[in-house]
Design a protein that fits this description.
Elements: E1 16-22, E2 26-30, E3 37-42, E4 50-53, E5 58-62, E6 67-71, E7 81-83, E8 90-95, E9 101-106, E10 110-115, E11 123-128, E12 133-138, E13 144-149, E14 154-158, E15 163-168, E16 170-173, E17 176-181, E18 187-192, E19 196-202, E20 210-217, E21 223-228, E22 234-239, E23 244-249, E24 260-266, E25 273-278, E26 284-289, E27 293-298, E28 303-309, E29 315-322
Antiparallel strand pairs: 1-2, 1-29, 2-3, 4-5, 5-6, 6-7, 8-9, 9-10, 10-11, 12-13, 13-14, 14-15, 17-18, 18-19, 19-20, 21-22, 22-23, 23-24, 25-26, 26-27, 27-28
Length: 324
Amino acid sequence: MSKSGSSGGGGGSMEVILATAGYDHTIRFWEAHSGVCYRTLQYADSQVNKIEITPHKYLAAAGNPHVRLYDVNSKSATPLTSFEGHSGNVTALGFQKDGRWMFTGSEDKSVKIWDLRTPSGGCQREYKCDAAVNTVALHPNQAELISGDQDGNIKVWDLTADKCSREVTPDGDTAMRSVSIAPNGTVAVAANNDGSVFVWRLAAEDTSRFDLLEKFTAHKNYILKAAISPDSRSLATTSADKTIRIWDLDTKGLDKDHTYTLNKTLTGHQRWVWDCVFSADSAYLVTASSDQSARLWDLAQGEPIRHYNGHHKAVVCVALKDYA
């Protein structure tokens, strides 16, 4: 994403797709650089917990207890497919890199994989967890999922062996809120309700092996999202303390005393900051907050350069695809 780049507006091909959703039962699409909302989808059945954009420019929205898939470039408000099978809030959502399948996690204590190559989008696999699932991330190798749950467990799901290959509980029963894996496959991070971040080295020869490098306190309140940038050099954490913190993440010097350094604290949101996503070039960040707004931040300056206003309740999720 660049300040001069173009963005979507009412259909057609788009270089930037930016969407937000939340508790007002709507999904809003924005012209990223002007801040204008050009399309609103009603999601009548529930709040929207998570949204993601597929490699083929579809938007998936996770609610309670279903997931619905929409065509980003269509003016139709009717979903293409509805994925039924969870029995509680769907809290996690993502896609295989080629868009062949989707994974979800839910408060119903399960992780599911869905086939996107069939019209019905049926559930291919289900993995049972011991507690409500709050977060799921896909390893860059596309062969493992890592989940975090309400009881503080981190589990690695080996998709080839079709089983849980590793389980760690790093901080007792403190709920794990967010998991992220560096795109270069070197480290995984997890953040919990105590404001702690855990950094693990991922072994290249055995990716289910977790070597804990360190634990540090990133916030004094709940961390709601932890996201590693596409260039694997930065970590963003968002919190109930109304701030976003940007950490320099050294994934090359993993034998040093610290793998992180606080770079900036972004302030301006008036309530909890629930979600964030980096631009493809790692230079910008979009955040979503209970203050009913989303913001676009220039990370070099540490300042918001665009506000997205229009939601009537908390904005809890954001999705961004930019093809610059």
